Amino acid sequence: MLYPQAQTQAEITANLASVRERIAAACARAGRLPDSVRLLPVSKTVDQSRIRMAYAAGCRVFGENKVQEVQQKWQEMADLGDVDWVVIGHLQTNKVKVVAKMAREFQALDSLRVAEALEQRLQLEGRTLDVLVQINTSDEASKYGLHPDVAASFVQQLRQFPSLRVKGLMTLAVLSTDAERVRACFVRLRELRDRLRIDLPPGMHMDELSMGMSGDFEIAIEEGATVVRVGQALFGARALPHHHYWPNQALTQEHTQ
Ligand SMILES: *Cc1c(COP(=O)(O)O)cnc(C)c1O
C-alpha cells in the first residue's frame, strides 16, 4: 500500500485521527484498553513544517532513525518546548553524545559498548535515558538487534549502567506480505519479554514491547505491543524504501513497499 502524501494540516490531523481509530479498534479486538498502546509518530525524512502540523494536531513525541537528523530537528523546534525525541535507529559509539544530551528514549540498544558509552555521557549530562533492547526476531532479515538467545545475559549486564532505565524490548518484524510470518516475530518478542521478566535484576522493569509500523501495527497490537512506531500512515509514503534504513533487509525477497 502506498500512503498518499499528507501536506496540509487537515490531512495530517485526519491521518492522526484515523491511526488512533485503528489502534483503538485493534485494542478492542484484542480485549485491551486503548490507552495500553502508545503511538510513536515516526518523523524521519519529514520536514519541520509538517512535523509542526503533527504537533498542532496533538503529537508531543517523535521517533527518528538518524542521529544527525534528530539533532537538527531538536534544535530547529526547540521553541516548541514540550517535544520529546525518541531515537529508534542503530547507534554508533561516536554518536552517543547527542543522544545522551537530548533524547528521552533510545529503542535500539543492542551492544554493551554503546550502553557503556551512553552511561558515561549521561553521567556527564546528569541525565537518564529510557532504553529498549532491540531484538532480531526475524533471524535472516536484519543485522541489527540481538539474537533472542543472548538477550537474558545482555539484560543482566545492563545493571552496570544506572543511567539507562531499561523498559522493555523493540523489534522490526520481517518485511513480508505474509501476515503469519510477521505475527510470528511479534509473538517471539512477547514470549521473550515474558521469560526475561522472571529473572530481572532488582529495580529493572520489562513492560514495554515496541513493535509494529504502518504496515503491521494492528497485528502487533493483537500480540501485545505497548508502543507502535508509525510514520508513513501519518505523513505519507517515503521516497526511500525500508532497506535504506535497515541495511541487509535489502536481501529479503518480500518487501511490502
Ligand atoms: C521508519 C521506521 C518506522 C516507521 O515505519 P513506517 O513504515 O513509516 O510506519 C518504524 N520503526 C523504525 C525502526 C523505523 O526506522
From TrEMBL:
Q: Does the keyword Acyltransferase apply?
A: no
Q: Which Gene3D superfamilies match?
A: Alanine racemase (3.20.20.10)
Domain Alanine racemase N-terminal, which positions? Answer: 15-238
Give the CDD domains listed for this entry.
Answer: PLPDE_III_YBL036c_like
Name the domain of life this protein comes from: Bacteria
List N6-(pyridoxal phosphate)lysine occurrences by residue: K44
What UniProt keywords apply to this chain's record, in alphabetical order?
A: Pyridoxal phosphate
Q: Which InterPro entries match?
A: Ala_racemase_N, PLP-binding_barrel, PyrdxlP_homeostasis
Please state which protein family the record places this protein in: Belongs to the pyridoxal phosphate-binding protein YggS/PROSC family.
Cited NCBIfam families = YggS family pyridoxal phosphate-dependent enzyme (TIGR00044)
Q: What does this protein do?
A: Pyridoxal 5'-phosphate (PLP)-binding protein, which is involved in PLP homeostasis.
UniProt-recorded name of the protein = Pyridoxal phosphate homeostasis protein
